[in-house]
Structures are given as structure tokens and as C-alpha cells.
Specification:
With about 230 residues, the protein is of the alpha/beta class. The protein is about 40% helix and about 20% strand. The longest helix has 16 residues.
Length: about 230
Amino acid sequence: MNEVLRKVFLALEGAWNTLGLRLVDIKIEFGNTADGELVVADVIDNDSWRLRDQDWTELSKQRFRDGDELSAVEEIYQLVARLTERIRIPRQAIVLWRGSKKDNFPETPGLPASINRIEVTFSGHKQPIACLRRLEELQRDFPDSGVILAIAGRSNGLGPMLAAHTTWPVISVPPGIKDFPENIWSSLQMPRDVPNATILDLDNAFSYALNILSVKNPIIYMGQRFAIEERMES
């Protein structure tokens, strides 16, 4: 029950964060299905939480408890109702981009269902025009943003080439770093306006990508924050 409660709170916290609001606390009631499954058995609305804006102004039922005029309370409820309609799960992608078929696509265990996994194989050196065309298609197909993990052996120049032509974050994850350690400089020492990140550990690269996407995605935010809190409490 505690885990479900925390995840519900974090998902809602992430949702309100996208609108610049702060979820302070929440009340949730639980129940059991006929099969014995524990579920949230309550309507979650402006009577169930305390919600505040950036100026720490109360936007929930607490205004009624504090004795505000009913007209002011009604206005706050209407505002929250309008804001609730703006909450959504964005269409985002993590793009695994390799330079050739000799580079292996990694497994992505635990990738949330709300994130699309896209695989691309184009060489930044040999197929630059094809790279730019595919990049344009991806940005059109996923207007809510994405993150590119560039996985290219040897030269490791794919990530910087892509980073110079997109506003999406690009993370270079050189797979052959043990055999060609000098190639890391191909994605570390970049000229101006080529904002490419380099992460050697693939798990950390995925975690970093999810952190980036979590800013707009309350489901990803919930998963990332829950994992952090679990580590802190262990």
C-alpha cells in the first residue's frame, strides 16, 4: 500500500510540476477487488490534495477550511479544473542510433511503455544527408521531444554530428572505448554550438535520458523519483 501511495503521489507531483505548480500532500483511499487486488478506490480531485502555485498560494479545498468566501473558493476550483485538462502524457522517444550494423543495439530493460524506442542505422560520416533526413522525421513524429543515444564504434563522431543539427539532447555512448580509448575525444572536445554529452556507462546514459524526458512526462518522473527515494532509504 505504501508503494502504491508513493507512486500515485509522485505521478501527480510530476504532472503538476509540468504546469509550474506544487503538490504538497494528498489523501487516498484504497480498496480490494473481488480477486484481492489492492487498488486506489477514491476520486482524486481538489478535495483530496493541497496544491499551491509558485507564490505558495493555496489552490485547493484548504481555502474553504480557512474560511475564504465561497465565491473565491469556486474561482479556485474552476481554475484547477481548467489546469487539469492540460495535463497529459507526452509523445516522446529514446532513439538508439548506431553508425553501422556492426554496432549492436543494446537492451533497454525497464523502459516505460510511455516512451517509444526507435532504432536507426545511419553513418554520420558516410550517410550525412540520410542522417539529417531521418533526424527531421523523428522531430516531426515526436514533437514533444526525444533523446538520442549515439552508439558508434571506432571514430565516435556520430553523436557530435547529430548534436550540431538538432535541439534534442544527444548522448554519445562509445561501445568500443576499451579497444579505442583515444576515440573518446571525438565526442568530448567539441567546437562551439555542438552540445554533445558523453557517458561511458550505458545504464547511466539511459538514466540520464529518462531524467531529461521526466521534465515533461509525469510517468517517467514518478519512476525516476521513486528509484531515487528507494536508494536513499536503503
